[in-house]
Amino acid sequence: MLAHRVGDTFDATVVAQTKDGCTVQLTDPAVTAACAGHPETGSAVRVRLVRADVPTASVEFELAA
């Protein structure tokens, strides 16, 4: 679904903190995924898709500047 959008940015909300960063919920498309960085839970952020692995159905984001 997102493999062709690596490098694109998306609006998201931080829904949880993890030891390695945070978990974000994208606004559109509705995707929940890991994100590098530690913004406050509940904050609205802009994230960039850095990896989309189709065989494992996993994606990873970073905070966009």
Uncertain runs: none
Radius of gyration: 11 Å
Distance between the termini: 24 Å
Query: What's the CATH architecture name?
Result: Beta Barrel
In what order do the strands lie side by side in the largest sheet? 1-2-3-5-4
Number of helices: 0
Short recap of the structure:
Helices cover 0% and strands 57% of the residues. It has no helices and 5 strands. It holds the Pfam family RNase_II_C_S1.
Q: How would you describe this protein?
A:
This protein is mostly beta strands. It has a single domain, classed as Beta Barrel (OB fold (Dihydrolipoamide Acetyltransferase, E2P)). Helices cover 0% and strands 57% of the residues. It has no helices and five strands. The chain has strands spanning 9-18, 21-26, 32-36, 44-53, 58-63. The protein has a five-stranded mixed barrel. A hairpin with a 2-residue loop joins β1 (9-18) and β2. The chain is globular, with a radius of gyration of 11 Å. The protein starts with 8 loop residues before the first strand and ends with a strand. The mean pLDDT is 94.
Features:
65 residues; mainly beta; OB fold (Dihydrolipoamide Acetyltransferase, E2P); 5-stranded mixed beta barrel; globular; RNase II-type exonuclease C-terminal S1 domain-containing protein; RNase_II_C_S1
Topology:
Blueprint lengths: L8 E10 L2 E6 L5 E5 L7 E10 L4 E6 L2
